[in-house]
Specification:
Layout: H1 5-50, H2 55-65, H3 72-75, H4 80-89, E1 91-92, H5 118-124, E2 133-140, E3 143-150, E4 156-160, E5 169-170, H6 171-178, E6 182-185, E7 189-192, E8 198-201, E9 204-207, E10 210-214, E11 222-227, E12 232-235, H7 239-244, E13 247-253, E14 256-259, E15 262-263, E16 266-267, E17 277-283, E18 288-293, H8 305-314, E19 317-323, E20 331-333, E21 342-343, E22 346-347, E23 351-352, E24 354-358
Antiparallel strand pairs: 1-16, 2-3, 3-18, 4-24, 5-23, 6-20, 6-24, 7-8, 9-10, 11-12, 11-13, 14-15, 14-19, 17-18, 17-19, 21-22
Length: 359
C-alpha cells in the first residue's frame, strides 16, 4: 500500500496528538497520586497531634514548654487549656528532703578488680595511669550519653565565666582558662542589659564559701553543691542556710532526682519532655559522676526524666540532680567537646555563665 506525503503528514500529526494526550494523562495521574499522598500525610499528622493517643502530645508540649524561647512550638497547635492540663499531668514530684552528708562514706580509692556487675565495672575500673577520672559512653533510647566518673570529688569546683558580663563563654573556653580537665555546664540563666549581653545564673550561686548571687529560687528547683567534706548536698533553703550547712560551692537548678538513695517520683514523662540533659551525681562511696546526653539529632532526641532515673539507678547514685539542659548541655574533657551540642534551630556550643569543673 502506498502512502502519499499528505497522508504521512496526517498520520504523524495524529501520533503527536495521541502522545500529548498520553503525557497529559500521565501528568494528571501523577498529580492525583501526589495529592492523595499529601492528604493521607495530613490526616495522619492531625491524628497524631489531636488524636486519642496522648504520648506525642505530652512529648511535644513538655519538650517545647521547657525551652527558653520555643514555647510557640506547642502554642501553635494546642490551646492554653490543653497545655496546662498536660503540664499538670507530667511532672517530677518535689523532694523536700536534704542530703544526709553522714551517709556518704568515701572508699579508700583502690580498684580491687572485683565487680558485682558490668555497671560497677564501668564505674570502678580505672583507666590505666589515671586515678582522677574516666569517661565512657552508653546508649539509652537511641541517644548517646557520656558519663564522666570523678574519683576525687575534692577536685570538683563551681566556677563563673570571666566574661559573664559580656556574653559569657563557651564551655571549652571556660575549661581552658581554668585549666580544667573535665567540665560540664551548670545553671540556667537570663540575659539582661544592653543587647542581653550580661548572663545572670538563676537563683543562688556560691563559690568557695562566698555568696556570689542571692536570687529567688523557684519551688521546683533547689541548691545543688558540694560541702567542705566534698559531699554533694541537695537542699531547699536560703543562701545563708547553705553557708551554715558548710556548702563551699553551689548553684541552683533541678529537679532533684535522687536524695539519700531515694529516687524522685516521676508522673507521666516528668514534664520535661525529651531533650539533651546534664546531670550531676554522687554515689554512697563518694565517687561522683557527670552525665551529658546528646539529643536533637538523627541519632536520637535526648533523655526524659524517666531515662535519667533509670541510668542513675543503674550506676547507684545516692544523690543526684538535673542541671540545665537543651542547647546548654556540654561536656568538655581535656580541651575537647565530647558530646554533640546544639539546640532548636542551631548547632554548636552555647555561651554560658558558669560551670562545674574538675581541676
Amino acid at each position: 500500500m502506498l502512502v502519499t506525503n499528505e497522508e504521512e503528514i496526517l498520520i504523524i500529526e495524529e501520533d503527536n496528538k495521541n502522545r500529548k494526550k498520553n503525557k497529559k494523562g500521565k501528568k494528571i495521574n501523577r498529580w492525583f497520586y501526589i495529592f492523595i499522598i499529601l492528604d493521607v500525610l495530613a490526616i495522619a499528622a492531625l491524628f497524631v497531634i489531636y488524636g486519642p493517643w496522648s504520648g506525642f502530645r505530652d512529648f511535644w508540649i513538655t519538650s517545647a514548654m521547657t525551652t527558653m524561647t520555643h514555647h510557640y512550638l506547642a502554642e501553635t497547635f494546642y490551646s492554653d487549656e490543653v497545655i496546662k492540663d498536660v503540664i499538670n499531668k507530667n511532672f517530677v514530684e518535689n523532694i523536700d528532703a536534704t542530703t544526709d552528708a553522714s551517709e556518704i562514706t568515701f572508699s579508700d580509692g583502690k580498684d580491687t578488680g572485683i565487680y558485682e556487675s558490668e555497671y560497677e565495672e564501668q564505674i570502678l575500673k580505672r583507666d590505666e595511669g589515671n586515678d582522677l577520672y574516666k569517661v565512657f559512653d552508653i546508649t539509652v533510647n537511641r541517644s548517646k550519653a557520656h558519663i564522666a566518673v570523678i574519683y576525687d570529688p575534692s577536685r570538683i569546683t563551681y566556677t563563673v565565666s570571666s566574661k559573664i558580663n559580656n556574653r559569657g563563654q563557651q564551655l571549652i573556653d571556660i575549661a581552658r582558662e581554668q585549666e580544667a580537665v573535665v567540665a560540664i555546664n551548670a545553671s540556667a540563666f537570663a540575659r539582661i542589659g544592653s543587647g542581653g549581653r550580661k548572663l545572670v545564673p538563676n537563683g543562688i550561686t556560691i563559690k568557695e564559701g562566698r555568696i556570689l548571687q542571692n536570687g529567688v529560687v523557684a519551688s521546683k528547683y533547689g541548691i545543688i553543691g558540694f560541702n567542705n567534706d566534698n559531699v554533694l548536698v541537695l537542699m531547699k533553703g536560703t543562701a545563708e542556710e547553705a553557708i551554715a550547712a558548710g556548702i563551699r560551692d553551689a548553684m541552683t537548678f533541678g529537679p532533684f532526682l535522687y536524695v539519700n538513695g531515694v529516687p524522685a517520683k516521676i508522673n507521666g514523662n516528668g514534664g520535661w519532655g525529651v531533650a539533651p540533659r546534664t546531670v550531676i551525681a554522687q554515689r554512697k562511696d563518694g565517687i561522683a559522676f557527670f552525665i551529658v546526653f546528646d539529643g536533637r539529632s538523627a541519632g536520637g532526641l535526648g533523655a526524659s526524666m524517666n531515662d535519667l532515673i533509670e541510668v542513675l539507678t543503674r550506676y547507684k547514685a545516692y544523690n543526684a540532680a538535673n542541671l540545665d539542659g537543651g542547647g546548654s548541655s556540654t561536656l568538655v574533657v581535656n580541651n575537647k567537646v565530647i558530646n554533640e551540642t546544639g539546640g532548636w534551630g542551631y548547632t554548636g556550643d552555647r555561651y554560658l555563665p558558669d560551670a562545674w569543673i574538675v581541676k
